[in-house]
Design a protein that fits this description.
- The complex is a heterodimer of chains A (272) and B (361).
- Chain A has helices spanning 9-31, 33-37, 54-61, 63-96, 102-114, 117-131, 137-161, 166-173, 178-206, 210-215, 223-233, 237-263.
- By secondary structure, chain A is an all-alpha fold.
- Chain A folds into 2 domains: 2-31; 69-263, MetI-like (MetI-like fold, Orthogonal Bundle), CATH 1.10.3720.
- In chain A, 35% of the residues are buried.
- With 361 residues, chain B is α+β, with helices and mostly antiparallel strands.
- Chain B folds into 2 domains: 7-226, P-loop containing nucleotide triphosphate hydrolases (Rossmann fold); 239-359, OB fold (Dihydrolipoamide Acetyltransferase, E2P), CATH 2.40.50.140.
- Helix content of chain B is 23%, strand content 36%.
- Chain B has helices at 45-53, 95-105, 110-123, 139-151, 169-186, 197-203, 221-226, 231-236; strands spanning 7-16, 19-29, 34-38, 60-65, 68-69, 80-83, 157-161, 189-194, 206-211, 214-219, 241-250, 255-260, 265-269, 281-285, 291-292, 299-311, 314-322, 325-332, 345-350, 356-359.
- In chain B, strands 6-7-8-3-9-10 form a 6-stranded mixed β-sheet, sandwiched between helices. A 5-stranded antiparallel β-sheet of chain B has the order 13-12-11-14-20.
- In chain B, α2 (95-105) packs across α3 (110-123) and α2 packs parallel to α4 (139-151).
- Chain B is elongated and about 75 Å long.
- Classes of the chains: A mainly alpha (272), B alpha+beta (361).
- The A-B interface holds A 163-164, 166-167, 169-177, 180-181, 184-185, 188-189, 267-270, 272 and B 53-55, 74-82, 84, 86, 88, 90-92, 101-102, 105-106, 133-136, 149-150, 153.
């Protein structure tokens, strides 16, 4: 039985157009910022009346931007590492721990992703104030890890579900204790999931605004917070330039995740 | 060649809350024996295997290997080999790395690991396959690698959990032979779980039939077939025509007269203490013990053929001997001179000695 494509040309074209429209809706608004960043005028406009690189230069020469970028990295990397450790342990516990309440635990772990960040921010503010961690890197990292850990939990859980638990049992009959089983069998299977999760965790921290508004200070403010502040005072295309670089950076990370995902699905990786 | 371990399981039991996965079970497997566990799925055979290898902590009982108690020993220290149904080769390791894995875990010197891997590959007839990845192998090849991995460290006990279950029929028969050869070569004690009675019968020295979380009977294939302990064993191994017994009276030293619940009367082999009022009894006659024709058997009946199936030299008849009551008959096709077809009215009969009385439960 085969589908006769010839007689279905018209509906197929309509479907293709619809899909293109959806993609445009999803992605096009994001890319509007790109031409705006190359404007030669001192205000944000679309389309820009003329072209220049002056706003990239302005951004480069403003130490606020570079310091905020550094802050974002200094928050993002520990957030990613902490999320990978906690998220991986959580995934192992719920999928391999034989816990009776594993389903409940999974729901609780994923919950911070669904709950409004502002509620988390309001809750963390007095707590971190009391601990003396407000406006410190540690405080933001704690906050960001709450929302980034579920991402790692999800990617590592998916990797764990992708191969049968029997592989680990087989390793044990071969004489590998729990640690060596993890090191030689589990880890190679979930490594890609952990790495994808780390990148997603870093990216979610890197563009997080709500918690950063509440928890960072003038020396620890992150890139999204600086963009937010600048938008309130100076509406220059320098913001568009920052946003364009942020976009390029995010796309690179997205591409890495996509490539990793494709590689992990090549033939030879576990089937049940 | 390893000396096979002497396995003694006593009182081994497992329950999850009120659900009994394994009733207290005793089992003794002699060194070097090929011992099969068969039974319907969910009967408890995998639980028994899991408790022996150490994946399942039993609720009670003991497992001893050559006298040493291992119930409290973690699976990675039990030194038991295990072959799974789904091969479970490590997909990120080559064939050679898979076979070398248990040897690496034992910190053997590299030169010895290489020598052993090469020897195991020869034994499972896959020389030169060391560099391949598991995904590049067929199902049968993968299972041979799994066999090599499980045996590479000379475990005195090798457990196999439906190792041929995922293979097609022809390959399965070929692999049965290979596993037997492998067993002779390594000398380990083998505990082999299967749901295929022919596989169990053709491969093993002894068989344990497991049903409803307990061992129903242990014996050679022939003993189980000819002297089943109850109706479940009789109908699980091969085919059995069973008649519920209403009354049984002894005729002489060898025979009894039995009246069945559906109104038949048969002369059967004598059984001690056969009293249907004490415990339900069934009379059992195997399909190949029934003859067709006007012979002078103790039990003679008339019937009508309602189905004829020919398989590889054997004819299977289904004969209705009373409305709603059908017996199966299995005869060598070459002896069936007359062409008996569906609808034919025939006489059938069997010897008193071939019909046995056994407990229903």
């Amino acid at each position: 039985m085969s589908l006769d494509v010839g007689t279905r040309k018209a509906p197929r074209a309509a479907l293709a157009a619809f899909v293109v429209l959806i993609f445009a809706y999803l992605l096009l608004p994001t890319f509007f910022v790109v031409p705006m960043s190359f404007s030669n005028q001192p205000y944000l406009s679309f389309p820009p009346p003329g072209w220049s690189l002056r706003w990239y230069e302005a951004m480069w020469n403003n130490s606020d931007w570079t310091r905020a970028t550094l802050s974002s990295v200094l928050v993002g990397i520990p957030t990613a590492i902490l999320s990978v450790v906690l998220g991986t342990l959580a995934a192992l516990a719920t999928l391999r721990g034989g816990l009776r309440w594993a389903a409940t635990a999974s729901a609780l772990i994923i919950a911070p992703m669904m709950l409004p960040h502002i509620i988390l921010a309001i809750g963390l503010y007095p707590l971190l104030l009391k601990l003396g961690l407000l406006r410190s890197y540690v405080g933001v990292v704690i906050g960001h890890t709450v929302i980034a850990m579920p991402l790692v939990f999800i990617t590592v859980s998916a990797a764990l579900r992708n191969y049968p638990e029997q592989l680990e049992l087989a390793a044990m009959t071969c004489g590998a204790d729990r640690w060596r089983t993890f090191r030689h069998v589990t880890l190679p299977m979930i490594r890609v999931g952990m790495f994808s999760g780390a990148i997603l965790a870093f990216a979610s921290s890197f563009d997080e605004l709500m918690l950063s508004l509440f928890l960072t200070g003038s020396t620890t403010r992150t890139l999204p917070r600086l963009i937010w502040e600048q938008l309130n005072f100076y509406l220059t295309p320098a913001i568009a330039a920052v946003a364009t670089l942020l976009l390029a950076f995010s796309l690179v990370m997205l591409a890495i995740v996509a490539v990793l995902g494709r590689d992990s699905q090549r033939p030879g990786v576990a089937r049940a | 060649m390893t000396r096979g371990a002497h396995l003694i399981v006593s009182g081994l039991a497992k329950s999850y809350g009120s659900v009994v996965a394994l009733a207290p079970t005793d089992l003794e497997v002699a060194p070097g024996e090929f011992f099969a566990l068969i039974g319907p799925s969910g009967s408890g055979k995998t639980t028994l295997l899991g408790a022996i290898v150490g994946f399942i902590a039993p609720s009670a009982g003991s497992v001893r290997l050559d006298g040493a108690e291992i119930v409290a020993v973690p699976p990675y220290k039990r030194n038991i080999g295990m072959v799974f149904q789904n091969y479970t080769l490590f997909p990120h390791m080559s064939v050679a790395e898979n076979i070398a894995f248990p040897l690496r875990m034992r910190n053997l010197p590299r030169s010895e690991i290489e020598a052993r891997v090469a020897r195991m590959l020869d034994m499972v007839r896959l020389p030169g396959f060391g560099a391949r990845m598991p995904a590049q192998l067929s199902g049968g090849q993968q299972q041979r690698v799994a066999l090599a991995r499980a045996a590479s460290y000379d475990p005195p006990l090798l457990l196999m959990d439906e190792p041929l279950g995922a293979l097609d029929k022809n390959l399965r028969e070929e692999m049965q032979y290979e596993i037997k050869q492998f067993h002779h070569a390594i000398g380990a004690t083998i505990l082999y779980v299967t749901h295929d009675q022919d596989e169990a019968a053709s491969m093993s020295d002894r068989i344990a039939i497991v049903n409803q979380a307990r061992v129903a009977q242990i014996g050679s294939a022939r003993a189980l077939y000819e002297r089943p302990r109850n109706a479940f064993v009789a109908s699980f191994l091969g085919e059995a025509n069973l008649f519920g017994v209403a009354r049984a009276t002894r005729l002489d030293a060898e025979t009894m007269r039995v009246e069945t619940q559906n109104g038949f009367a048969f002369i059967t082999a004598a059984a001690d203490g056969a009293d249907p009022t004490a415990a339900p009894l069934v009379a059992c006659i195997r399909p190949e013990a029934i003859r067709i024709g006007d012979a002078q058997e103790a039990n003679a009946l008339r019937g009508r053929i309602i189905d004829v199936v020919y398989t590889a030299g054997t004819i299977h008849y289904r004969v209705e001997i009373a409305p709603g009551h059908v017996v199966g008959i299995r005869l060598p096709a070459m002896r069936q001179a007359r062409d008996l077809a569906v609808g034919a009215e025939i006489r059938i009969g069997w010897n008193a000695a071939d019909m046995i009385l056994i407990p229903r439960d």
